[in-house]
Amino acid sequence: MKTRQTSFVVAILSVVATAVKITDIQGVAFQSPFAGEWVHNVTGVVTAKDRYGFWVEGEPLEDTRVSNGLKVYSATLGRHVQTGDLVSLSGRVAEYRQAARPNDLYLTELELPSNLEVLSEGNTVIPLVLSKTGDRIPPATLLSAHDVGPDGWLSVPNNVTLLERANATLRPDRYGLDFWESLEGRLVTIPTPTAANFPDMFGSVWVYGDWDIPGKNERGGLTITPVDKMPDSHPGTVLIGRPLDGTRLPKSVVGMKLSDITGVVTYQFGYYYILPLTAPTVLHTPVQAPLPASITSTDHPCEIIIGDYNVENMSPRSNHIPFIADHIANYLHSPDIMFLQEIQDDSGSRDNGVTSANQTLTVLVKTIAQAQAGEDNEVIAPYSYSFVDIDPEDNMDGGKAGGNIRVAYLWRPEKVSLLPGVRGTATQATEVVEDANGQLTLSLNPGRIDPTSDAWEETRKPLAAAWQTTNGDRFFTVNVHLSSKRFSSSQHGDARPPVNGRAVQRTHQVKVTATFVDSILAKDSSASIILAGDMNDFVQTRTVFHPLHSLLHDINDVADIDPAERYTYVYEQHAQEIDHIFVSDAVAKRGAEVEHVHVNTWALSASARASDHDPTGAKIWVCKRLEDVAGRRLVIQADI
Ligand SMILES: *[C@@H]1O[C@H](CO)[C@@H](O)[C@H](O)[C@H]1NC(C)=O
Ligand SMILES: *[C@@H]1O[C@H](CO)[C@@H](O)[C@H](O)[C@H]1NC(C)=O
Ligand SMILES: *[C@@H]1O[C@H](CO)[C@@H](O)[C@H](O)[C@H]1NC(C)=O
Ligand SMILES: *[C@@H]1O[C@H](CO)[C@@H](O)[C@H](O)[C@H]1NC(C)=O
């Protein structure tokens, strides 16, 4: 057999030279026992190449903690090898991460390689098959032994341990990061994987294979659900990066089935990746179109349909208004009250001092009226929806500069009305008070909750409102949009548990909101209260929601929604619920229906979405009287 040989002179030569196996280099821990050392006569078969070098795979060990794959970092040397070459080479073992990315995990590499010798050609490496019927499957629920705390990987405080500093011995049977680390550099196949999301901004796709995964929803996405009371992190899900042969990944959607993916396991940009040798093809795209909610409004004054929708930076000129209007009119069937978030001012993100959103809301309610009437029918004011909001102080509530996003209510005046009162201003706090008849109302209606509290610095303030039915029964609502998860760190990163951006601020915000809710319940423990909106966190982050725990009920629990189907958003590998509806005891005891309407998470492309959030619709009973409704007797639920 023909042998090619290439020699490279290395400036510094080590003193001692011994043959070292790839498995010796990888070792049983996150970091190599040879880190920083020169090694010689490292042999392995070339499995893949990229423009920075190539991957080699040596003899495997029985010990599943130890990888037999390795990245060789050298573009020059890469040009002298072919896939299938059995090579021998020297080099220095490095634990590498970009200086600009200090929260990344280290990738074990052989750098400054030399003494390359091709011992034979045309060798094959059989990929390790990741599937239930194959060689290995990832662990089911946990990412890292260091995600300690009451809520596992979602625990607060975050960043208690640095994984690389701890350099633990790998436990690939138990922890996802350990599992992927134990395969670092190896050639693996995931047979017919499923995509868990749309592509990310680099075109990479999160996938999972054929193994049991808690929280798998009907669409094929992976919902964050509790397992043994701990939130599941979907540790077996992995990013598929740019194919090594220059082909392009298909544009994924949630639940899309792909053909087998074979590639090398690596770590880059904060995550474990498989770099496929070539792009997979699409085997199947979910065909079921999003279904409209089955909940519809009734004539009964006590039975109220609410909708909740983050309409993503809506201004009067937004192209997505007709889609949002269609969702409200035809998928939620025009709820009696809409809780909206991310309504921008009338000048959108132009930073010009305008704070009123009167035009934004007017255009929206007019477009909803058109959607209700059908495309060609001209609609004239008054539209079926009235609206109310409170203008923020200019650029004081976070979000896109100049946009002045705020929460707002739409309501159907023939069904409900705001109790008479004065609308508050940006800085005035509303309070629960008794009116002249001794009935509860709000001092400002609607009004903001404690808007000058530190909790709301640089963020949207909640809008509380007191309502009455056409029979005069009263209820309260709070519409919130808590601080975003900006500044969160990677779930595959060094900081354990990962940093949950602004969790401390959200906890404070929930606390202030809970204090307000409690002030109503203190005056009337059987008050009907609905708290809804974009809360930017999962109920599984129990620390954040703790202040509400004894006051309100998650409407999903009241309606007994399958935990896997509780999602309104998809981010990275998770389908997740960050939009919530909570109700008071009195409302919960009368039962409720709720539906998350997946008009956006089920879109056939990321760009076809009208918003990044799905809307939710719910039916509740707001009167203290119980009675027969359309043949259905409302029964007090004793077990709530
Ligand atoms: C490495 O291999 C070369 C032949 O390619 C041999 O001459 C040398 O002795 C080996 N070194 C070690 C440390 O095994
Ligand atoms: C990491 O752990 C391995 C195995 O215990 C050890 O050989 C290596 O020196 C450790 N590296 C560091 C930087 O602690
Ligand atoms: C985690 O904490 C360390 C200090 O222990 C700090 O250097 C690092 O920047 C933090 N990581 C993140 C992602 O905030
Ligand atoms: C919106 O603006 C119009 C015209 O300026 C005004 O008549 C109306 O009262 C405003 N509506 C609300 C809800 O502020």
Radius of gyration: 28 Å
Supply the CATH architecture of the largest domain. 4-Layer Sandwich
Structural class: alpha+beta
Return the CATH topology of the largest domain: Deoxyribonuclease I, Chain A
Number of strands: 38
The CATH superfamily of the largest domain is Endonuclease/exonuclease/phosphatase
The coarse overall form would be elongated
Task: Compute the separation of the termini in Å.
Answer: 77 Å
Percent helix: 10-25%
State the strand order across the main sheet. 7-9-16-17-14-11-10
Amount of beta strand = 25-35%
Total helical segments: 10
| Poorly predicted runs of 5 or more residues | 1-16
Distinct ligands = 2-acetamido-2-deoxy-beta-D-glucopyranose
The main β sheet shows up as: 7 strands, mixed
- Assembly state (oligomeric): single chain
Number of domains: 3
What is the name of the CATH class of the largest domain?
Alpha Beta
What is the residue-averaged pLDDT? 94
Structural commentary:
- Helix 5 (321-331) packs across helix 6.
- The chain has 640 residues and is α+β, with helices and mostly antiparallel strands.
- The protein contains ten helices and 38 strands.
- The protein has a seven-stranded mixed β-sheet with strand order 7-9-16-17-14-11-10. Strands 23, 26, 27, 28, 30, 31 and 34 form a seven-stranded mixed β-sheet that branches. The chain has a six-stranded mixed β-sheet with strand order 21-22-20-19-36-35.
- The chain folds into three domains: 15-120, Beta Barrel (OB fold (Dihydrolipoamide Acetyltransferase, E2P)), CATH 2.40.50.140; 126-288, no CATH class; 303-636, Deoxyribonuclease I, Chain A (4-Layer Sandwich).
- The protein binds 2-acetamido-2-deoxy-beta-D-glucopyranose (4 copies).
- One 2-acetamido-2-deoxy-beta-D-glucopyranose (NAG) binds next to loops.
